[in-house]
Amino acid sequence: MSQQLIPNDDFLRHTLNNPTGLSPCEFRLDNGVTVQVWDTGVICFEPATAGDKDIVLSCGVHGNETAPIEICAELVQDILQQKLAPKQRTLVLIGNPAAINGGKREVEENLNRLFSGHHSKGAGLINDERKRALALEQYVTRFYQQAPNGTRKRYLYDLHTAIRGSRFEKFAVYPFLHGKPWQKNQLEFLQACGVSTVLLMQTAASTFSYYASNTHGADAFTIELGKVRPFGQNDMNRFSEVRTSLRALVADAALKTQDFDEANFHLYEVYRSIHKQTQDFKLHFADDVENFTTYPVGTLLATDGDTEYRVEQEGEALIFPNAKVAVGQRAMLMVIPRSVKGQLA
Ligand SMILES: [Zn+2]
């Protein structure tokens, strides 16, 4: 049955062959799992008896970040071929099929800056990324709202790879919780995924993970799994922990977690966000500097017309530097170490 609807059970290929849309369809696997295709890159799995978790896994929000796309495609194919039996409701999203086909981060606009209604601000729904952001919000809403009654936990793990290398290969962005405590079990889950560097945000954002966290109360993260590489050039062994942990989560199998110990983590908060003010904005370090690089206090980081940016704090580290952003956009984030002692739930 599924062979006719999703050729070779290859939902990624099917999505990329139909980047602008797919007709909804539904079928049931022999193991009782209901499969629903909602759209291109949108597939929902409902076990006959669902557990208490509603899990969203997303990849390809940036089209050239291939490793997460391969991880999710493998997971979906294994479910369709009944090599992996989901015990939790699971929605898998391939964010930006047109950008994936183009081998590009985005076609017109950064999809991960368009959530929480930003897709409709300013000029409105003028391009495909803006329309996709709105549609993805609607699919996530539908998925969480269609859950059975009872006490349930919502999750969204938005998987990425970074443009540049990182002093800590894998790291997660924990969206701003508006004063609510950070979740110890989520830090433990991230560690099981091989992610022990976490950036704790202190402001609202237009990202997919902040949207799921703030709008739906999900435990949600942007997870950066390493450096961007083309399809087929990812060393999948580098992702074995995240693959294993996501599959265990979906299958409700035992997770290899350890009790949280802050000494095993690198936790950071944002110290300041540096925005490009003029066309003269210039970074004063090598183009290929790694995320989380630190320099001595006083080191010149960037100039922007007459403005100089220097390291102000001991341990201040830079992430996501990009001098090519549009004027007015964030060109770099500066972070400092912080503790979560006494602030976990
Ligand atoms: Zn990304």
UniProtKB/TrEMBL annotation:
Catalytic reaction(s) noted: N-succinyl-L-glutamate + H2O = L-glutamate + succinate
Going by the UniProt record, its keywords in alphabetical order are: Arginine metabolism, Hydrolase, Metal-binding, Zinc
Chain ranges of the Succinylglutamate desuccinylase/Aspartoacylase catalytic domain: 53-248
Q: Where does Zn(2+) bind?
A: 62, 65, 160
Q: Name one Pfam family in it.
A: AstE_AspA_cat
Q: Which domain of life is it from?
A: Bacteria
PANTHER family xref list: ASPARTOACYLASE (PTHR15162), SUCCINYLGLUTAMATE DESUCCINYLASE (PTHR15162:SF7)
Protein name, per record: Succinylglutamate desuccinylase
Upper taxonomic classification of the species? Bacteria, Pseudomonadati, Pseudomonadota, Gammaproteobacteria, Alkalimonas
